[in-house]
């Protein structure tokens, strides 16, 4: 079935051409498939890609200085984040929060907003993980 859909995809119009007409994937479809709410606060704003920003945010979120890409200093290695996550003892409230932040960051970089490598995630997502009370309001 997937091969049939690939053959019917038209990148010019971002639609599938089927016998019943053109069909496109909507935000509601994605919300249903992933089980994500779409009625919260939008994620928007400017990003700071300086190494000082990446280092300070990394320490605030992960509790240590992040391992970044040698080519692009604003990208954090997801393998490093996974190792940090898996090493958490989960014996304190803060270690549980760090674990959850690492896990969400990995989801953002490897599932929701992935790039070709799937090995790195942009540091622009770090500020979104600072305030746990606000995380619940994002759409």
Automatic annotation (TrEMBL):
Residues 2-139 form the Aminotransferase-like plant mobile domain. InterPro entries: AminoTfrase-like_pln_mobile, MAIN-like. It comes from the Eukaryota. GO terms for biological process: meristem maintenance. This is Protein MAIN-LIKE 1-like. It comes from Arachis duranensis. The gene is LOC107478606.
